[in-house]
Design a protein that fits this description.
Structural class: alpha+beta
Strand content: 15-25%
Shape: globular
CATH topology: 3-methyladenine DNA Glycosylase, Chain A
CATH superfamily: Methylpurine-DNA glycosylase (MPG)
Order of helices and strands: HHEEEEEHHHEEE
Helix content: 10-25%
Number of strands: 8
Largest sheet: 8 strands, antiparallel
Distance between the termini: 29 Å
CATH architecture: Roll
CATH class: Alpha Beta
Number of domains: 1
Length: 219
DNA sequence: ATTTAGATCCTCT
DNA sequence: GAGGATCTAAATG
């Protein structure tokens, strides 16, 4: 029985646009302090391409205590706190010193669903709702700022594996504009979000409305 | 189905 | 002192 292969430094050492597409279908793994393993297949990402990106925390080359991780080597985790209650997790990419990252927005839970339910903690939650948004995903996988700046290539508490559900063909992935941005001019319109077409595990803003029964998408 | 308001606190100006 | 890479519950058509 072989260990699943992890994504290495070289995998992360490229532009955010390329990486955002490549992370779809990979497995995000979180090992809790007590050893419990939680994981999910990434189904939605957003690219924050660099200092020229007005929606990026590193726009204009800003470097602050908060976004310092974005300037680290590719494969660094950038975890920040927002809206007074939520965390968001990014994978830093490109060259060290040049801030670019991919926001992990949603995942299909694979391991530790029971534990995720407890961590999300609002009664019974559908599997499709456990990690269907950046804040939800971090809550379900207990990702917070203590993990900011860690190295996803070598960490034993948070990392990425090659195997998810196998390669997803380009035709199975939809591109669209990013979500929740402020006044960022033309950057708001650029299609820098990727998600698995028709997946019920993506965030609300990406969900395709069903022509039938007005119901939710399945499986 | 869609809209709304409120929660809530860290970060930067 | 303002606002944010969000989420939920409640209200409304």
């Amino acid at each position: 029985m072989r260990m699943p292969e992890r994504l290495d430094r070289k995998f992360f050492a490229r532009g955010a646009i390329e990486l955002a597409a490549e992370l779809i279908g990979r497995r995000l793994v979180r090992v809790l302090p007590r050893g419990d393993r939680l994981s999910g297949v990434i189904v939605e990402t957003e690219a924050y391409v660099g200092v020229q990106d007005r929606a990026s925390h590193a726009y204009g080359g800003r470097c602050t205590p908060r976004n310092r991780s974005m300037y680290g080597p590719p494969g660094t985790a950038y975890v920040y706190f927002t809206y007074g209650m939520h965390h968001c997790m990014n994978v830093v990419c490109g060259k060290e010193g040049e801030p670019a990252a991919v926001l992990i927005r949603a995942a299909k839970p694979i391991e530790g669903l029971g534990h995720m339910q407890v961590l999300r903690g609002r009664g019974t939650i559908e599997p499709t709702e456990l990690c269907s948004g950046p804040g939800k995903l971090c809550q379900a996988m207990q990702i917070d700022r203590t993990l900011d700046g860690i190295d996803l290539v070598n960490s034993s508490e948070l990392f990425l594996e090659i195997e998810g559900e196998g390669p997803i063909s380009a035709i199975g992935i939809t591109r669209g504009p990013r979500i929740g941005l402020g006044d960022v001019g033309s950057w708001a319109k650029r299609r820098l979000r990727w998600y698995v077409s028709d997946s019920p595990y993506v965030s609300g803003g990406s969900r395709k409305r069903s022509p039938f029964r007005g119901g939710r998408n399945r499986g």
